[in-house]
Amino acid sequence: MRIALITGATSGIGRATALKLAQGDFNLIVTGRRKDRLEELKKEIEVKYKKDVHILNFDIRSNEQVEKAIDSLPERWRKIDVLVNNAGLAVGLNHIQDGVIDDWERMIDTNVKGVLYITRKVAPLMVERESGHIVNIGSIAGVSVYENGNVYCATKHAMHALSQGMREDMLKHNIKVTEIRPGMLETEFSIIRFKGDAEKAKNTYKGVTPLFAEDIAESINFVLSQPAHVCINDIEITPIA
Ligand code: NDP
Ligand code: 8X3
């Protein structure tokens, strides 16, 4: 049985991925700030799929909390085979001259610094065992930009660069790095982006069939199912619309 650590498993892609991997040969470490949701997910996986789940409840923007969480792992849970760097968010949608500094900091601290903090703690555990797979959830916003998307797009461009950089550093240790870049996907993402305005969030998907979290979970499961000698570097997925 392999162990996958999924950041941001309380909702959207992270939650769907936990449920998908639990149907295969994975025990799971699930993380996020909303502990009640992690506990519900743990219960669901244990009952439905008979897999072990370990909860780590922390804010990924705090290196101190990240270090403490990973250091707290019991020995058997430290053999992490897969790290899914998924936790992330967009906050606000403004022209650059109207940008809100606090929104920018939330995005940069979560999407860039948070990914670095957790990778810095988990990658050495993989290097020690000369084995592992890091799956980074980027975005089409990591290779293109759109009006008002400035800082969110910049954080996902950083994820794109980091994915390539990590791959250069990790492959020599037999550790694969895959970047998955989804397009428009209906999760809690837009509710967070519009700061709880459900109406605006809903309008984002008006007239189109977006991707769903399960579509991305399917791709993650696919890249993790490849033979040992195969590394899928990138997958870009958009809705037909
Ligand atoms: P959701 O809002 O549904 O899920 C985001 C997850 O990230 C939640 O579990 C949340 O957990 C976690 N998270 C956010 N901030 C923190 C934090 N400070 N500390 C710990 N966990 C945090 O959105 P998605 O599932 O859509 O987003 C997942 C990833 O997919 C993100 O990186 C996003 O950029 C990317 N993406 C999304 C697209 C979309 O259109 N939806 C398209 C392309 C990429 P909690 O709040 O409990 O801490
Ligand atoms: C999220 C997709 O198009 O809203 O990464 O930037 S988009």
Protein architecture, described:
- The chain contains eight helices and nine strands.
- With 241 residues, it is of the alpha/beta class.
- The strands form two sheets. The chain has a seven-stranded parallel β-sheet with strand order 3-2-1-4-5-6-9, sandwiched between helices. The protein has a two-stranded parallel sheet with strand order 7-8.
- The longest helix is centred in the middle third of the chain and has 29 residues, at 101-129.
- It is globular, with a radius of gyration of 17 Å.
- Residues 139-141, 149, 183-184 line the site of 2-hydroxyethylsulfonic acid.
Characteristics:
241 residues; alpha/beta; two-stranded parallel sheet; 45% helix; binds NADPH dihydro-nicotinamide-adenine-dinucleotide phosphate; binds 2-hydroxyethylsulfonic acid
Secondary-structure blueprint of this entry?
Blueprint: E1 2-6, H1 12-22, E2 26-32, H2 35-49, E3 53-57, H3 63-71, E4 82-85, H4 101-129, E5 132-137, H5 150-170, E6 175-182, E7 185-186, H6 189-193, H7 198-203, E8 211-212, H8 213-224, E9 234-237
Parallel strand pairs: 1-2, 1-4, 2-3, 4-5, 5-6, 6-9, 7-8
Helix pairs in contact: 1-8, 3-4, 4-5
The chain binds NADPH dihydro-nicotinamide-adenine-dinucleotide phosphate and 2-hydroxyethylsulfonic acid.
Q: Can you write the helix and strand succession as a string?
A: EHEHEHEHEHEEHHEHE
How far the N terminus sits from the C terminus, by CA atoms, comes to: 38 Å
Low-confidence stretches: none
Number of strands: 9
User: How are the strands ordered across the major sheet?
Assistant: 3-2-1-4-5-6-9
Alpha-carbon Rg, integer: 17 Å
